[in-house]
Amino acid sequence: MGSMDTVALIVAAGQGARAGGDVPKQFQLLAGQPLVEHARRAFAAHPAIARVVTVVAAGQEALVAGETVVGGATRRESVRNGLEGIGAADRVLIHDAARPLIPAGIVDRLLIALDGAKGAVPALPVADTLARGGGAMLLDTVDRSALVRVQTPQAFDFAAILAAHRAWPDGEEATDEAQILRRAGHDVAVVPGDPLLDKITYPGDLALAEARLGAGMRVRTAMGFDVHRLVEGEELWLGGILIPHDKGLSGHSDADVALHAITDAVLGTIAAGDIGTHFPPSDPQWRGAESGQFLRHAASLVAAKDGFIDFVDLTIICEAPKIGPWREAIRGRVADLLGLALDQISVKATTTEGLGFTGRGEGIAAQAIVTVRL
Ligand code: MG
Fold first, then answer.
1. How close is the Cα of 259 to the center of ligand 1, in Å?
2. Per-residue pLDDT tens for 301-331?
3. 170-217, pLDDT tens digit by residue?
4. 33 C-alpha to center of ligand 1: Å?
5. How many Å lie between the centroid of ligand 1 and the Cα of residue 257?
6. CATH architecture designation of domain 219-373
């Protein structure tokens, strides 16, 4: 089993209007990351999964990390495009991006079940009474003992599900891949599902998932502080933005004091030393270097620990230039560098009332506080 080539296919091409918000559901944030990113990381971290491919709508390729395939007009067409895009594999796990929490045990159970069937799905018994309805009055109760709630990921023999998709009649829709495989004459095994796999469908579901996720995570907060000297004949880079000024900051890299403070704060959240530990000023390769790469590196170390950056609060301390006109540009640049939303980045500025080195215009200081969840 371990030597088989297993691919995870995440379907993230839908519009998901029922969950509310002004972005498609799969890109709404959970613990600071899009829903789809949670599923992608969970699969990527599983030792049995060699490759993760995400199906997105045209134009949304850049919103998802890793390998993407453009989907079709319906869910079924999107999955078909994804399967064709995978090309070759032994097994495939097909998953909805709207189910961000994937217990590792589910993948193990599904892959074991695939040894005895061409398809396997997780399912839960139905606890509530089921009845026909739709109007104001309740109609007949339905026997729930024969019913289950089918979840994703659903696991398949790759060749069997691809053939079943190709044979499915055009113009007819399917609710999931298990239905498509059964139509092709194959049995689908059932393994115990998990309430954590429940789909984010309605606005309250996101808050519930946040609480479930938060229960297993720790919040860490750390600060960073930096100062660089203002000199003539240098460019002034602040928060990744080139700001016109009669002086610039001097230092071994581009001396972006704001990005350095944020970088140190990010590193602090995982006790990973400071910017000098990772990018020694004595190393000539960092001369004039663009500081955004330092910040991206720090963020990648948090991601490698399955952590999420939740919030960045930056304060720039100087007499001049005025930061206000550049505040939104800096927020946008920091958000881009970290892959976060604008409302996760705060940029503030203050003077020191003419006092001290910042007051005399000899340098600029910056401090940052970063909150992560690990
Ligand atoms: Mg510095």
1. 8
2. 998 887 889 999 999 999 999 999 999 999 9
3. 889 898 999 999 999 999 999 999 988 999 988 889 888 888 877 778
4. 28
5. 5
6. 2-Layer Sandwich (3.30)
Most confident of 6-15, 170-179, 254-263: 254-263
CATH class of 6-215: alpha beta
Please give the pLDDT value at position 21. Answer: 60
**pLDDT confidence of residue 8:** 97
Q: Cβ–Cβ contacts within 10 Å for residue 123, how many?
A: 17
Of 61-65, 72-76, 163-167, the range with the highest mean pLDDT is: 163-167
CA–CA distance, 331 with 334 (Å, rounded to integer): 5
In the chain, domain spans? 6-215, 219-373
Could you give the dihedral angle defined by the CA atoms of residues 160, 4, 80 and 117, in that order, rounded to the nearest 10 degrees? 30
The pLDDT, as a whole number, for residue 111 is 96
Take residue 18 and report the two structure tokens written for it. Answer: 């029922």
Quote the pLDDT of residue 16. 53
Q: How many of the other CB atoms lie within 10 Å of CB of 92?
A: 29
**What is the SS3 assignment for 141?**
strand
Q: How far is the C-alpha of 345 from the C-alpha of 334, rounded, in Å?
A: 7
Cα of 275 from ligand 1 centre, angstroms: 8
Residue 228 CA, ligand 1 centroid: distance in Å: 6
The beta strands (E) that lie in 64-137 are given as: 67-70, 91-96, 119-125, 130-131
Whether a cis peptide bond, with omega within 30° of 0, leads into 280 is no
Cα of 314 to ligand 1 centre, how many Å?
Answer: 14
The sign of the torsion formed by the CA atoms of 307, 312, 317, 318 equals positive
- Asked if 6-215 and 219-373 have one fold, the answer is no
Query: Rounded to the nearest whole angstrom, what is the distance from the C-alpha of residue 356 to the centroid of ligand 1?
Result: 19
Answer yes or no: is pLDDT of 219 > 50.
yes
